[in-house]
Design a protein that fits this description.
4-stranded mixed sheet, binds beta-D-galactopyranuronic acid, 2 domains, 5-stranded mixed sheet, D-Maltodextrin-Binding Protein, domain 2, 46% helix, 345 residues, alpha/beta
Length: 345
């Protein structure tokens, strides 16, 4: 889609979304009993919501979103309908978070990376090399502290409903990079957050934050020398065709998060909130299975495509080099970092 028409559809989305919330949630009078004493109207009315995701159809997060929508529909006997809009149709990730805050889009699946600029607590996930493995990450996400973080978004006018898997992120570049020192001087695209800018600065590169949808063409035209992401994104967004050198350093494990707009949420009955919360949690297992499958498939695909894959045998030089980033943010995230350490078996 052209930029202008994208913007137009995003703007239309704001208007449409706002009217959906109004028609969906009705006014305060809905809570009252009807004259014949039947159920409150809010529990009978059909509710329609939109959910945004910036990945294509069949990407594991979109499959998770659809499972979530399906479960909500089932549990509400068809009364609550969530329509999933993949492919960044409702806007890029940052603008989606803003629309969720405004209540113009009711649900979204976004990365905790850009969420850090809206709700500081989630920034901890962008800190480098804090998890040893997927198991370590998920043990933390499922711990009390992990759940607490998910519930820390209300101040930012949002609710965190569930974490989704997003694996580990690695660097990829136009020119071969064989070790941490060779990243020096490269212009690397990052997710839009200050921690990511600091991370690239520590690696002596030059950070270029930009929306995800612009990365492929920027790699092709040489606006950037490289980027970083998990393997399913590297493949599904075609980055592997433009940046054929991959170094598997796994610098971050930045989970995805399913969020709801607090504006829309506050208008729901307690019973409907419960349905939605349960459905989101129940969709996680399926999303993680799909994630594991796509990680494997992506690995195969990049091998077949002849990508130059560099393994990192010793992470120590990488960890040493980014230590100033951890030091800078320790004061903000000390207790969470301790809890992450404790989740290590
Ligand atoms: C992906 C994530 C997207 C987006 C993207 C990025 O891994 O799933 O939501 O944040 O990274 O790098 O912008």
């Amino acid at each position: 889609m052209k930029k202008s028409s994208k913007r137009l559809s995003a703007m239309l989305g704001v208007v449409l979304g706002a009217s959906l919330v109004l028609s969906a949630c009705g006014g305060a009078g809905d809570k009252e009993k009807t004259s014949d004493g039947s159920k409150p109207a809010s529990e009978e009315k059909t509710l329609s919501f939109r959910m945004a995701d910036n990945h294509p159809d069949n990407y594991p997060t979109v499959l998770g979103d659809k499972k979530f929508a399906e479960l909500v529909n089932e549990k509400s006997n068809g009364r609550i309908k969530i329509s999933v809009f993949p492919n960044g149709q409702l806007g890029d990730e940052k603008s989606i978070i803003e629309q969720v805050q405004l209540g113009a889009v009711e649900f979204a699946r976004v990365s905790t990376g850009p969420m850090a600029e809206f709700s500081k607590s989630l920034g901890v996930f962008s800190l480098p090399y804090i998890f040893d493995s997927s198991e370590h990450e998920w043990d933390f996400l499922n711990s009390d502290k992990g759940k607490e973080l998910l519930q820390s978004l209300e101040g930012a006018k949002m609710l965190g409903l569930a974490y989704y898997d997003s694996g580990a992120r690695h660097f990829y570049t136009n020119e071969p990079v064989n070790n941490v020192d060779e990243l020096k001087g490269h212009k690397i695209r990052v997710q839009q957050s200050q921690i990511n800018i600091d991370l690239i600065a520590a690696l002596e590169g030059s950070a270029t934050p930009m929306p995800y949808g612009e990365v492929f063409s920027s790699l092709q035209t040489g606006v950037i020398d490289g980027a970083e992401n998990n393997l399913p994104s590297y493949v599904s967004a075609n980055h592997y065709q433009a940046a054929k050198n991959l170094i598997l350093d796994g610098h971050q494990r930045v989970p995805e998060v399913v969020i709801a707009s607090k504006t829309a949420w506050d208008k729901l009955s307690d019973a409907d909130k419960k349905i939605i919360q349960e459905a989101a949690q129940e969709s996680v297992e399926y999303q993680r299975e799909e994630w594991a499958k796509m990680e494997k498939e992506s690995e195969e695909k990049i091998k077949e495509a002849g990508v130059n894959i560099v393994e990192v045998k010793d992470l120590k030089p990488w960890q040493d080099k980014v230590k100033p980033v951890i030091d800078k943010y320790r004061a903000d995230y000390g207790d969470v970092l301790d809890a992450i350490d404790q989740a290590r078996k």
